[in-house]
Amino acid sequence: MPIFGRRQLQHTFDDLGPWFSEFKAKDLLNRLENVDPDQALPAEYELALTWGVSRTASLEIDRRIGGRTPDIYSADFLLGGPIVADVAAISDDALSDESVMMRARNIINNKCNGILKGAGNHLHYTFREESGYSPADRHSKGRKRYFRRRRITEEFNMDSALETALSKWLSGGPPHQALQWQGEHIDVVIVWQGSVHPQSSVFCTMPSEAHDLKDNPLYRVLKTKQRQLKGAPEGVRRVILLGDAGCSLLRNIRPIGPMFDTVSGQQVIQSFFADPVNTIDFVIVFTPKHLHESSYVSSNNPRIWQFDVFYRCSQLPEAEFDRFRALAEALPSPYLDGYQARSWHQQGMFDPKGRGHYLPLEWSEGPRHATMRLSARALQELIAGRLSKEEFELCTTGKPNLFALQLAQGRTISSVRFEPKGTNEDDDYVVFEFSDDPAAAKLRLPGSPKPPPA
Asked: What is the mean pLDDT of the chain?
């Protein structure tokens, strides 16, 4: 759950307690703790955006409207009348075919592990792609349509021909040559490497991109949410709140350069509003980004919320735009951006029983004293035996060992205090003060010796 830190999520969850039914609270909690990022990240956005509305206007959660229960109802969020809103978070999974490639990798790895023990830990997969123009038909209004796709489908399964090829390829131990395999549902190059991280073991040269204004996951989500909100009565404006959970169509919603044979998130949303049967009034997109996107320096470059407002009316009144701005400003600060959050979640780095996420070491030194701000979580994990001495140094102090260095310079710990960092971080500081101490140093002459008596 790394769009927001765990402390922030619990604080937000507690604040919303009076608005939740028991069923809603349990359902949201189960989704927040789900190991599937496509469950957990949307739940984070739903929790945060609902909380943001509660900070700026009246709130009702899961109010029954026309047989459905949209996420948010507010009678006074907009000055012109009530709103009903539903929240969604979108990733690139459908555009990237990540899950399809991972499924194929798992099928082949399982077979390879039976041929050569542990082989799957060393295999990297590059899936090939193809592109061209499909013949014109009535759906394309007589125009040829450009396509670009990866050569892997959900129908792929192990067959005897591929099994034989894998057995031959691994029969002599780790192979030096790549295995190239092409079938009806797969076209892949498999390479043996020294080690392969599970989250970086598949690759395709085709980026995550959309080629059609309607045949893409963003448009499908918009249509789904439109059905969810269709029962809202006259005078209640319908709002879709979208969160970036690792989605290129949302992160780069208004691309700077020209686009060739691809469509942008802005174009998709505008196409949705242009549909004569559209009943949605607003689509608001929330994307966590660094304040200075082009900078690689993390200091003084916090993550903030970028928000984009799309609307059905001919012109958006400034007062209504300001209300959505107030919602964005009310949200808790993002912990990670969408792509990082999805990756962390897939690796299980959100697990409260796993390693913590440590604050960086801060150090200052004077002639006879020094101050160290050290991760409280890392220190506790060292004492608890979860981190070895080497792991602790790697994660926090580095080398040389700063505690040992202070002892060598004749300084010992003169005071220790706790410095809490609140809900914005999932860690705190333990602050150590080191001062000169004769117990750890050679004795020295007094600073101002007195002259001998007359």
From this structure: 92
Q: Domain of residue 288: give its range.
A: 6-91+227-262+277-346
Predicted confidence band of residue 1 (pLDDT cuts 50, 70, 90): low
Residue 297, pLDDT > 70, answer no
Regarding whether 100 and 83 lie in a shared domain, the answer is no
Same domain (yes/no): 86, 98: no
Provide the H-helix boundaries in 119-216: 160-170
Is it the case that residue 178 has pLDDT exceeding 90?
yes
100 & 65 share domain: no
Q: Are 123 and 39 in the same domain?
A: no
What's the domain count of the chain? 3
Side chain identity at residue 123, one-letter code: L
DSSP strands (E only) in 187-281: 187-192, 202-204, 237-244
CA 124 – CA 200 distance, rounded (Å):
8
Predicted TM-score (pTM) of the model is 0.87
More confident residue, 260 or 52: 52
For residues 273 and 32, the answer to whether their CB atoms sit within 8 Å is no
Q: Where are the alpha helices (DSSP H) in 232-371?
A: 248-251, 265-274, 318-330, 338-346
213 within a domain of the structure (yes/no): no
Considering the domain architecture, whether residues 170 and 84 belong to the same structural domain is answered as no
How does DSSP classify residue 433?
A: E
pLDDT of 257 > 70? The answer is no
* Contact of 176 with 228, CB cutoff 8 Å: no
Q: What is d(CA 286, CA 47) in angstroms, rounded to the nearest whole number?
A: 14
Q: Predicted confidence band at 351 (pLDDT cuts at 50, 70, 90)? A: confident
